[in-house]
Design brief:
The complex is a heterodimer of chains A (208) and B (199).
Chain A lengths: L13 H7 L1 H10 L3 H23 L2 H17 L10 H17 L4 H10 L19 H20 L2 H12 L4 H8 L3 H19 L4
Helix pairs in contact in A: 1-2, 2-3, 3-4, 3-5, 4-5, 5-8, 5-9, 7-10, 8-9, 8-10, 9-10
Chain B lengths: L2 H12 L5 H13 L1 H19 L8 H20 L2 H45 L3 H11 L12 H4 L20 H6 L6 H9 L1
The chains are: A mainly alpha (208), B mainly alpha (199).
């Protein structure tokens, strides 16, 4: 699993951070008003953000709208970004907040139901990649089925457990960054991930 | 070690966050507990399966174009409120207020005594027992304004008891557009109504 390194010391100057982290350098250019740098950041991060938002909201259409909103917010509040923190943490914090707002909207239930009707029709990203360790078509099919079951089980998790699990286990953010994105302590994030994992194990145990 | 604690430590072990001493204790427990050993294996396979889930999705070109369009509009809005403009406009407004205040101070000495005497006379008139006389005193203190009636109609002048205390009579100019205000609703064209009522 890809996992990002821990947070960098807050006292590091912006120039040093920019030389260490290319995303920080891009964000500093965005802060200077360079739209080409913004486009580069969008192309780099929007696939991850869209996938995260899609899993959070379980709705393709809303996920695309919210992903747009995430990056518009990134641009609108670019002056608030501090180079001491990683760009990925900042962008996933914005994405998480927008997703939680969206999930708490009262008219959302109807949209989820509509999406559920076509959930099995196949998604734009297609089925998950076949298990590279699998040798035959049967193993590949079972890996695909496991992925589909996992996605369905993730959709059933409570929203905070889902966010904590997705950010830490799939997007590979460090616990401290997940805590920052969710606005809670690192211990609380570990507890959320533990409970989410227990639920997933119960849901897909027969496929593991 | 009990199985409950072992299961809590399994998560930390999978994250490589368990101390060496605790890891040895967990291993000893796993060696003699088949259920926890099975649970550990399932946890490991689940972590692998989660890590294999696609981390990215294909972003439709329309989403990128829409986002960039919104950002360009945002940047254009911000450009209209350029930094020099954001400083210049409030500075100009402040300077205007200061100029008006200075001009007002220069004009006050000539107008103030009259205003003060008018105010005191009006206040005295309100305290008076004879309203008609007071109203006349007020009128003499204040210069007659354009459009203001010279006095009450004869029918009312014959009945001084009706003039108990009517400060509105000193502010008739405020009632000039009373009809227009009364007739106007939120949905009406204000200027049209005003024209109608005035006409």
């Amino acid at each position: 699993m890809h996992r990002e390194p821990g947070p960098v010391a807050a006292a590091t100057p912006a120039a040093t951070m920019a030389s260490v982290d290319p995303d920080v350098a891009l964000m500093l250019r965005v802060q200077a008003g360079e739209q080409a740098a913004f486009q580069e950041l969008f192309r780099k991060y929007s696939p991850r953000v869209l996938q995260y938002v899609r899993r959070m909201l379980a709705s393709d259409a809303r996920a695309e709208e919210v992903t747009q909103d995430v990056f518009v917010q990134v641009f609108r509040f670019r002056a608030r970004y501090r180079p001491e923190s990683r760009f990925s943490t900042w962008v996933f914090t914005i994405a998480t907040n927008l997703c939680l707002n969206e999930l708490r909207r009262p008219e959302r239930q109807l949209r989820v139901d509509l999406w559920d009707d076509r959930a099995e029709e196949g998604r734009r990203e297609g089925p998950s990649l076949a298990d590279p360790a699998a040798v035959g078509p049967e193993e590949g099919a079972s890996a695909r089925e496991l992925s589909q079951r996992l996605d369905a089980a993730i959709r059933q998790l409570p929203e905070k457990q889902r966010a904590a699990l997705l950010l830490s286990r799939i997007d590979g953010l460090a616990y401290t960054d997940v805590a920052s994105a969710l606005g809670c302590s690192e211990g609380a994030v570990k507890a959320l991930v533990f409970r989410a994992t227990q639920s997933l194990k119960a849901a897909v145990r027969e496929f593991l | 070690m009990r199985c409950g604690r072992a299961r809590r430590w399994m998560a930390a072990a999978l994250d490589d966050e368990l101390s060496v001493r605790r890891r040895h204790a967990l291993d000893r427990h796993l060696a003699r507990c088949a259920a926890c050993r099975d649970e550990m294996a399932v946890s490991g396979r689940l972590a692998e399966a989660l890590a294999r889930l696609p981390m990215t999705a294909e972003v439709p070109a329309a989403v990128e174009q829409a986002t960039l369009r919104r950002v360009r509009m945002l940047a254009a809005d911000e450009g209209e409120r350029a930094p020099w403009l954001r400083v210049f406009v409030p500075a100009l407004a402040t300077a205007g207020i200061v100029v008006l205040a200075v001009l007002g101070t220069l004009r006050l000495p000539s107008g103030r005594p009259e205003a003060r005497s008018g105010t005191s006379q009006t206040a005295a008139a309100r305290r008076s027992e004879k309203p008609v006389a007071v109203a006349e005193a007020g009128r003499t203190a204040r210069p007659a304004r354009r459009g203001r009636p010279p006095g009450p109609p004869p029918a009312l002048a014959a009945a001084p008891e009706l003039f108990v205390d009517l400060p509105l009579l000193h502010n008739m100019e405020k009632l000039e557009h009373f009809d227009a205000i009364r007739m106007t609703t939120l949905d009406d064209d204000t200027s049209g109504d005003a024209r109608q009522s005035n006409g």
